[in-house]
Design goal:
The complex is a heterodimer. Chain A is an all-alpha fold. Chain A has helices at residues 2-13, 16-20, 24-30, 34-63, 84-106, 108-114, 118-121, 125-137, 142-170, 182-196. In chain A, helix 1 runs parallel beside helix 9 (142-170), helix 4 packs across helix 5 and helix 5 crosses helix 6 (108-114). The N and C termini of chain B lie far apart (50 Å). Chain B has eleven helices and two strands. Chain B is mainly α. Residues 1-6 of chain B have low confidence and may be disordered. The chains are: A mainly alpha, B mainly alpha.
């Protein structure tokens, strides 16, 4: 139940796009058609669900103050948390690379669908932001961290597919010329963000 | 000095353009659409926006110079990783400096300092400019794009803070008498969606003044 509540909260209440604007660059770039939006959205879900638990282990067994106790008592008060940025980004970049190779080997069809999006993801703020929020939230178990990653990914997926569907339709409307394209996408995201504020305080 | 004279002067017309372009017709946030996440999320108060722009500008200039100096040494295949490591190291330094000197602001910016690493402006400029140009030009390019980013941040923060809490840089600027006749702070301006609308209006004005920027 607690996990379900965490999932709902990370997908809707703390939606990556509407509450924190994480991954806005790729969000605007791929939301021109629903097809590409679904592709990148699926890749984000996948990478978030894999990288957040790995970064959770790294944070709790290497970086956090006292996390190195398992090496011996003399390491008990080591605090490596200043290294977390570089460690997280290294983990993300290498996992993305690894995932790309595995997917290419075992599922060429999936690779065809996700292929071009995977390298983009290493520099998607949603992935790094997820890792940094995981560090801030101090989850009790790795299960919580995994569910958090999955939920955030699903939230991002929903956001990007919704906006892509709207942008496909808005092409047929009379938008003021200077607002065409990016400008209108900003306003639409703002309005959708207002709607998502309705989930605030939502508890299971 | 005689050798210096043969080269392009430090502030030639072309180099000045590197700084002025991003402030206007090639703004990284509104025209190139890069680095939006942090631009929108840290703008509730002007002080945060200013600290954030200074940090991003510093990382941008230093990162551009370092990558540009190494551009002939970096193998093409692993350039993204090299760039990430350079940027991450710079961001760690910035983070530690912020924690040491402006702890309150650094607490409020929370994860967004770390997100400078994945800020698309930085990776974008490294890829598009620093890998193909000399260090001095790259430094100017970094400065220009940093200022263009800061400009948008400060404008958005100005309106959000003024309309949302009646303050500028934490100081009350609206006189008491306005509140007495029924004016109220607009709490909606403090919420995330309003920054999107302010940026959209900024884009509207900018593209309205320069129709060549309009998308078709």
């Amino acid at each position: 139940m607690e996990l379900l509540s965490l999932f709902i909260r990370s997908a809707f209440v703390d939606n990556m796009i509407f509450a924190f604007f994480f991954g806005m660059c790729s969000y605007l770039a791929v939301s021109k058609t629903v097809k590409t939006a679904v592709g990148l959205g699926a890749a984000v879900i996948f990478v978030l669900t894999v990288t957040i638990p790995v970064n959770y282990l790294l944070e709790n067994y290497v970086l956090k103050q006292g996390a190195l106790t398992w090496l011996g008592d003399e390491f008990a008060d080591m605090d490596l948390s200043f290294l977390s940025f570089i460690m997280f980004i290294a983990v993300i970049a290498s996992i993305v690379q690894l995932v790309e190779m595995i997917v290419e080997k075992f599922s060429p069809a999936l690779y065809g669908a996700l292929g071009i999006f995977l390298p983009l993801i290493a520099v998607n703020c949603a992935i790094m932001g997820g890792a940094l929020f995981m560090q801030e939230k101090q989850f009790p178990t790795i299960g919580h961290a995994t569910i958090y990653g999955l939920g955030s990914g699903v939230g991002w997926f929903i956001a990007v597919v919704l906006i892509a569907a709207i942008r496909e339709k808005i092409r047929y409307s009379h938008v003021p010329a200077p607002l065409r394209g990016v400008g209108m996408a900003f306003i639409l995201t703002g309005l959708m963000g207002l709607a998502f504020l309705g989930f605030m305080g939502f508890e299971l | 000095m005689s050798e210096e004279a043969k080269k392009e002067p430090l502030f030639s017309k072309q180099n000045k353009k590197l700084i002025t372009d991003p402030l206007n017709d090639n703004n990284p946030v509104t025209i190139q659409v890069l680095g939006i996440c942090s631009a929108l999320a840290v703008t509730v108060q002007m002080s945060n926006a200013i600290v954030m722009s200074v940090s991003v500008t510093a990382v941008l200039i230093l990162g551009n110079v370092i990558v540009s100096a190494m551009r002939n040494l970096i193998p093409n295949k692993i350039r993204i990783i090299v760039q990430l490591v350079v940027v991450a190291a710079l961001v760690i330094i910035v983070d530690q400096i912020l924690k040491a000197y402006v702890y309150d602001v650094s607490k409020q910016l929370s994860v967004f300092v770390g997100l400078i690493i994945t800020n698309c402006i930085i990776m974008g400029r490294l890829e598009a400019f620093a890998l193909g140009n000399k260090p001095w030009a790259s430094a100017l390019d970094g400065l220009g794009n940093g200022l263009g980013y800061g400009l948008v941040l400060v404008i958005v923060a100005f309106f959000k803070e003024l309309l949302g809490s009646g303050k500028l840089l934490g100081i009350d600027v609206l006189p008491e008498s306005i509140y007495n006749i029924g004016y109220m702070n607009n709490g909606l301006m403090l919420l995330p969606p309003s920054s999107l609308v302010i940026v959209a209006i900024y884009i509207w004005i900018q593209k309205g003044r320069n129709p060549s920027l309009i998308e078709h």
